[in-house]
């Protein structure tokens, strides 16, 4: 009788856990799945904590309900698979604002990540360049081309649209700059439309028209009880053996599969497996690839990351606007780049004691000196800047928390997806039982990471000989 498969998943974030669930569902019965997590906890950037006696997210706060095709997102499918569908809740306030010239203005409608499809709708926030978005008789983007978002939008609609709309919206997701971020990776729908449309406004409208419509359906969701409940449920459902505080330091090819070196240098443990799924950020993945696949290690390790800090405060009965939060363009000269009014946005978090939870994010790629401040200084600065933005002094916090995420957000420069495709093609040919998954390759957001882990799991199943289904 054939021995059961042995699969190692390196990385216990939501990508690795989603891969473990998919392996459990699709691999032959008896498959041995082990998740190796370097830190002492699972979940990666999903971390539910407590502040002033109530739950709050110290990492990612929500997930998209729908995927690009209009069907439920991979995150929702995973939530359903692990038995948590009844816990999904949605924002009770959806309107956000932009801080422009020191005042809050509603985020204009009709844009695609800040790029307008109707110039009149953004006039209150930014003045588009006059007559720049002309039809030159050819598509904006060639069949295989990529460019930075900022380069395209500046050329077509001018600096203000980039700096007051696109940059803060991309910065809120990636902590990066529009001038550096790949259009194909961060805005794929617009990139597809730009391959046929001759104007940027026309490309935005075409992308919006092509998007599946779900009228009245909520865009975002989270879990009552916190996103850490998804982490726990996924780990439990997968039936995987979970090894915390287990750093995988080396990876070597063997005649039958792979050998992992786990643990401290002085007392290494060697583990033999049939397949390996790397669900860790690009740089640690590159270190592990340097031995068996040096031809791709440098490309993988070339991906850079931004570091951020999330500062959360519990404020006694503050006067907050009826907004979910606001974004801050870099041109405003503030440390904060975004703020979320948690207990306004999420009705299930509202508290009878009148405490409001407010969170702000700090840290932009290439300008991370702010993260060198102490926790106390960050809390004081954020409190002062929020008061200034809201036009009234906020009450003194009764509690505060600073969560630092070093190297948290990948920075996708133009050509990123082509580079990743080349790396994966090389691995499929030379090392088919070694797969890469995660935000560093496929994009940010819980649904993307879940789908990335599941896809990598399917690739391993195929390489090992097919599923049980």
From TrEMBL:
- Group of enzyme by EC: oxidoreductase
Task: Give the location in the cell.
Answer: Cytoplasm
Classification via Gene3D superfamilies: FAD/NAD(P)-binding domain (3.50.50.60), protoporphyrinogen ix oxidase, domain 3 (1.10.3110.10), Protoporphyrinogen oxidase, mitochondrial, domain 2 (3.90.660.20)
Which branch of life, at top level? Bacteria
- Annotated pathway: Porphyrin-containing compound metabolism; protoheme biosynthesis
Reaction catalysed by this enzyme: coproporphyrinogen III + 3 O2 = coproporphyrin III + 3 H2O2
- EC number(s): the record gives 1.3.3.15
The record, for InterPro entries, names: Amino_oxidase, FAD/NAD-bd_sf, Protoporphyrinogen_oxidase, Zeta_carotene_desat/Oxidored
Cofactors needed by this protein, per the record, are: FAD
Stored Pfam families: Amino_oxidase
Q: Where is the Amine oxidase domain?
A: 14-461
* Keywords from the UniProt entry: Cytoplasm, FAD, Flavoprotein, Heme biosynthesis, Oxidoreductase
The text of the family note is: Belongs to the protoporphyrinogen/coproporphyrinogen oxidase family. Coproporphyrinogen III oxidase subfamily.
Query: What NCBIfam families does this protein's entry cite?
Result: proto_IX_ox (TIGR00562)
Q: Which PANTHER family match?
A: PROTOPORPHYRINOGEN OXIDASE
Q: What does it do?
A: Involved in coproporphyrin-dependent heme b biosynthesis. Catalyzes the oxidation of coproporphyrinogen III to coproporphyrin III.
Could you tell me what this protein is called?
Answer: Coproporphyrinogen III oxidase
Organism field: Micromonospora solifontis
